[in-house]
Amino acid sequence: MSGSELDARRMLCPMPVIRTQEKVEQLQAGDTLTVFCSDPGAIHDIPAWCRVNGHEVLDIQQQGEEITIRLRVGEE
Amino acid sequence: MSEPRKAVALISGGLDSLLAAKVIQEQGIHVEGINFYTGFCVEGHTHAIRKKDRARPKRNNALWVAEQLGIKLHIIDIIEEYKDVVINPKHGYGANLNPCLDCKVFMVQKARQWIEAKGFDFIITGEVIGQRPMSQRKDTLPVISRESGADELLLRPLCAKNLEPTRPEREGWVDRDRLHGFEGRTRKPQMALAASFGFEDYAQPAGGCCFLTDKQYSHKLADLWKARGERRYELDDIMLLKVGRHIRPRPNFKMIIGREEGENRFLQGYRKQYTHMLTTSHPGPLVLIDGDAGPDDLELAAQITARFSQGRDADSVDIEVHIPGGEVHSLQVQPMPGAAIPRDWYL
B205, B220, B321, B346: which has the fewest Cβ within 10 Å? Predict the structure, then answer.
């Protein structure tokens, strides 16, 4: 199991979701991914995408304009 | 017991695609959703940019639909491939630069490729005969089936009873009697069906979900093509058309003027790519200059920038002009009176 990062800053939704989806496709179940983004819509969209596709949001942090979302990849 | 049949539903985030997927799900079919991102999709962007819209509840409607249905949703980036649909639509445009029929053919074609790759059996859309003037007519629905290559694997559950039976119906994968025969522009049957399923709070965008159906947006895109002398665009171009006040004082350049803090912040992200100007003596907008502007053009642009600053009534306003690469010029200009800016400069 490993941890990866994704820089989705300055991307507007749904691009952070699409890039997250593409990155998750390369990972294994149980791996973690930390996504850095700046579009406030990502706070809603990435967790919603995780819920419908069976991934787990571990943590959401917001500091000023920067949003950090950590998720764990679920089973297929 | 055999594996259930599998269908992919084109999910726009609107009511029709929600209902179409639900109708098929109710027949025991495994449904997953697919949503295409063209770059022209309405939701998200402007809400994320403009400060006044930040307080609005934000949601991606396609994801919301997937949650209501309890299905997986695959969001696909088709920005690059979609350019040819916008630039060279075989079936032409609608009222604005909306290539609705070509768009639908393209998306169903992509869905067909997707089901072939993923081992799914058929495709569902929320199309209804007569619902939209260009892409959802009795004579254009067969065009979409044929030209996309989906043919008999494309099922429209909301109006299937008005169409010839498709393969999923003929083979008994779905029960045709439990499909619908909706027709025309009325939304009442959809709203009644939504109520029967207990769906509330679904999105009903008045102008559809695509910026290309918007008159002003299409005008700005047509202006961009005209100014460049060719019909092409990059993602940044079409994003910037959604933001700010666009003014073209001369054919060789236009100004993109932030209208408030959120837009100024968004435009700041383009400072390294574009010549930009800002007011230093008074609070004012960030302004990007798109095109090839000479010293005389920049002087004019500075006067207009001053007009949109809080120094609009001052005798003079100080402006900094930043050229990509780091060069900075200072100008002192008299703000142009609002009435002196011709109406047709505004895009």
Answer: B346
